Amino acid sequence: MCPTEPDSTEAAWQKLLRIRQSIDNIDAALVHLLAERFKFTQEVGELKARFGLPASDPEREHRQIARLRELAIESNLDPEFAEKWFNFVVTEVIRHHIRAGAEGEEREIPED
Amino acid sequence: MCPTEPDSTEAAWQKLLRIRQSIDNIDAALVHLLAERFKFTQEVGELKARFGLPASDPEREHRQIARLRELAIESNLDPEFAEKWFNFVVTEVIRHHIRAGAEGEEREIPED
């Protein structure tokens, strides 16, 4: 066994707690980045509505997915997971914008 | 109209392209953070399996969700979205670990 590896249940618990702190830090960063992404997609939605730009752009979406799959492979993340995750976020963002639109004025749906 | 706002369709397109670059940068950061998170949950799974630690910890999960909802509110992100997103990631991570376990040796399911 490698000397830095825990050699008792107590040491394993200590290591688990340290890893959980890292997971919590990463999750906080993820939430803040999602908040920033959401601000940008809101801005895109407003721009598209005001200037009558097309609401959806399937080619852009294909490019986004292909790029995220490549980035996932480079960083040793399952590309299927990355694609599924991206689709989840895009779907939720659209749903949220539709709900926001229903509460206020009608607007185009951003797909960025 | 504010002077920094686009005043023509051409200017709106230019602004849209700039925003898309920001969205792409954020998405790259999100994928890299997800890759890092996944490495940690893999480590947790291995630790739990080796030392016979409990696979699931519902109290920790409740604390995680409550904390992420608070962080979402602070950063002006819909807390429902943050919770749904967290549940999606946890479910996918568990599914992935189960699949990885089925291909190799049996292991406990990490829920961190």
Automatic annotation (TrEMBL), chains A, B:
<protein>
    <submittedName>
        <fullName>Chorismate mutase</fullName>
    </submittedName>
</protein>
<keyword id="KW-0413">Isomerase</keyword>
<dbReference type="InterPro" id="IPR010951">
    <property type="entry name" value="CM_bact"/>
</dbReference>
<dbReference type="InterPro" id="IPR036263">
    <property type="entry name" value="Chorismate_II_sf"/>
</dbReference>
<dbReference type="InterPro" id="IPR051331">
    <property type="entry name" value="Chorismate_mutase-related"/>
</dbReference>
<feature type="domain" description="Chorismate mutase">
    <location>
        <begin position="10"/>
        <end position="101"/>
    </location>
</feature>
<dbReference type="InterPro" id="IPR036979">
    <property type="entry name" value="CM_dom_sf"/>
</dbReference>
<dbReference type="Pfam" id="PF01817">
    <property type="entry name" value="CM_2"/>
</dbReference>
<dbReference type="InterPro" id="IPR002701">
    <property type="entry name" value="CM_II_prokaryot"/>
</dbReference>
